[in-house]
Amino acid sequence: MRLLVITDIHGKMEKVRKLTEALVGMDPDLILVAGDLTHFSGAERARKILEPLLSLGRPVLAVHGNCDGRDVPELLNGLGIGIHNRRAEIGGVGIVGIGGSNVTPFSTIWELTEDEIRGILERNYVDGDVILSHVPPKDTKADRVHMGHHVGSQALREFIEERGPPLVVCGHIHEARCVDRIGDTVVVNPGPLFRGHYAVIEFDEGDKRVKNAELARL
Fold first, then answer.
1. For the chain, which domains are there?
2. CA-CA distances (angstroms) from residue 52 to 13, 16, 106, 161?
3. Residue of 157, 155, 77 whose CA lies nearest to 114
4. Burial of 183 by CB count in 10 Å (0-12 exposed, 13-18 middle, 19+ buried)?
5. Phi/psi of residue 43, each to 5°?
6. Distances (CA, A) of 199 to 2, 138, 168, 191
7. Overall pTM surpassing 0.90 (yes/no)
8. What is the pLDDT of residues 108-137, one digit of tens each?
């Protein structure tokens, strides 16, 4: 299964259009969107951002980010693509979603406690599932800010260490674009699409493992 992974669009419609043009011939099996479709805007803006992706006719699953408006999760659910605090299955691959972020110093729109993050995972995860989370796991390349501090979710980190999901897709920290590992778990932060970044992941749906993860740029 070929996964197209994007995150942190922050309302940049021109980047979404450019991405859809670049996808000609790629034919992804599933598009995963890891949040922050907008930059503190609501459902109307998010819908416009999603239209070029939905027009591709490929399955899309998404979570909201901490900078998405209060009505964005309802929009995603209404479109049948939202998986915050849910599990979906596409082509034999289960995906569990975590929207928003852990608590930040900035009091953004969607923030969760570590207990809430842990609860989402415990309620929804089935062995072998992919985790689609806006917030990255703590103490990885995916959660390190410019000053060097690690600001990801401790609960997500601990869950990965305990259960060993094959793949975690995340975003949130714009400067932390990477492919990293926690044990056998591959962690991919594709980098923000508003800067032209995305990733393509080849996932073996039978063996439930990542065959290849490649960071790309428009």
1. 2-217 (3.60.21.10)
2. 9, 7, 31, 37
3. 155
4. exposed
5. -65, -35
6. 10, 21, 13, 8
7. yes
8. 999 999 999 999 999 999 999 999 999 999
End-to-end CA distance of the chain: 22
What lies within 8 Å, CB to CB, of 154 at 6+ separation is 102, 114, 138
Distance CA 103, CA 110 (A): 9
List, as one string, the DSSP characters of 9-20.
Answer: -TT-HHHHHHHH
Q: What is the DSSP string of 29-63?
A: SEEEE-S--SSS--HHHHHHHHHHHHTT-S-EEE-
- Give me 130's structure tokens: 């992919």
Q: 50, 56, 61, 60: which is closest to 23 by C-alpha?
A: 56
Contact 9, 53 (CB under 8 A): no
Find, among 32, 30, 29, 28, the residue nearest to 9 by Cα: 32
Q: Which residues contact 43 (CB under 8 A, 6 or more apart)?
A: 69, 71, 72, 74, 75
Residue 24 has pLDDT above 90, yes or no: no
Please compute the mean of the pLDDT values over residues 178-188 and round it to a whole number: 98
**Distance, CA of 129 to CA of 97 (rounded, Å):** 10
